[in-house]
Amino acid sequence: MAGPGLVDAHGRTVSYLRLSVTDHCNLRCLYCDRRMRVRLSHFDVLRYEEMLGLIGLGVDMGIHKLRLTGGEPFARRDFVGFVEAVRARFPRLTLRLTTNATLLAPHAKRLAEAGVDRVNISLDTLDRATFARVTGQDLYPEVRRAIDACLDAGLGVKINAVAMHGVNDHELPGFLDLARRLPLDVRFIEYMPMGGSDWKPEQVWRAGDILAAARALVGLAELPRDDADAGPARMYAIEGGRGRFGLITPLSEHFCGTCNRLRITCGGELRTCLFSDRTYRLRPALRHERLGLPAVTRIMRLALLRKPVGAELLAARRSGSGVSRMAMSSIGG
Fold first, then answer.
1. Do residues 75 and 266 touch, judged by C-beta distance below 8 A?
2. Helix segments in the chain, DSSP class H
3. Adjacent-strand bridge partners of 244
4. What is the 3-state secondary structure (H, E, C) of 192-206?
5. Does some domain include residue 39?
6. Burial profile 162-199: b = 16 or more Cβ within 10 angstroms, e = fewer
7. Distance between terminal CA atoms of the chain?
8. Total domains in the fold of the chain
């Protein structure tokens, strides 16, 4: 029987869980962290069955949307089998994935058959040489094959691009053309000052400037913000296009007032805010022979009472410093 829902001290109801299945990633993106990455030991990573238990706990407390992330989730053995297990056990859960798509293409049909609702693909450039420079790997063709495979399989696709001056600001026409030709969403995300990355303020390409540049290229019509599928994004229909264009604005127009998410790392640490390094260790209670899921429930409810407003943490950071000490690959995005 479902218990009371998850509500934080600011009155925000939590209904969305992002669960990282691994901290391993086969890319080394410049905005993540190339230098300080230390992988967890096999023992410290939650087993799939433990993750299923946490998902069930979340569902009982009102979670109805789940996103499986990494690292790179397809880098973990039998990840697709885990996806199938999640869908079989929780058939009403909205189920989505975030991936760099370099390993995705062979699994697209199976994911569609498993009932995955949507795949978010991190892709910051449409140029092969720039892709290799940004990610440290020459795998752009694999990502493009994965996009086609997902669309052919009937999967919904969102492309997420971190907007960076001097890296991909000249590629806006290509991304808009991609969304015009294909039935997918292209969303530009303002470059966030996460700790350990190579973030520089002059690289931030702000959403207002992106939107002005996009409107000079194509006709855009803003869509209603009550579209639950949009999440924090401001979405626009493209005149004559099959897809949509969007902007995610953590810096210029934060959306902390409507934040509805929690994050659990692959090591079993609960993070209530992307910009906060405060974590709550769930794994010891989860693996304790007498504590288990009831104790995890109590930890999660107490943690919710301390869920911060991320924009306040962002505003209070030291000039030029990052918000979080952890790499995005360890947090789960």
1. no
2. 48-60, 79-89, 108-114, 128-135, 140-153, 172-181, 207-215, 283-287, 292-304, 310-316, 328-331
3. 185, 237
4. CCCCCCCCCHHHECC
5. yes
6. bbbbebbeebbeebbbbbbebebbbbbbbbbbbbbbeb
7. 31
8. 1
State how far the Cα of 310 lies from the Cα of 333, in Å rounded to an integer: 14
DSSP summary character for residue 90: -
In this structure, what token pair is assigned to residue 253? 């127009």
pLDDT along the chain (333 residues), means of 10: 70 92 90 64 93 96 95 97 98 97 98 97 97 95 98 98 92 98 96 65 87 98 73 92 93 74 94 84 95 94 81 56 52 56
Domain with 173, as residue range(s), is 6-331
Matching residue, tokens 């720039």: 130
- Do 327 and 31 touch, CB atoms closer than 8 A? no
User: b/e for 19-29, b at 16 or more Cβ within 10 A?
Assistant: bbbbbbbbbeb
Report the alpha-carbon distance of residue 17 to residue 5 in Å, rounded.
13
DSSP letter at 164?
B
In a domain, 1, yes or no: no
Query: Do 38 and 93 meet the contact criterion of CB atoms below 8 Å apart?
Result: no
Instruction: Write down the pTM of the prediction.
Output: 0.89
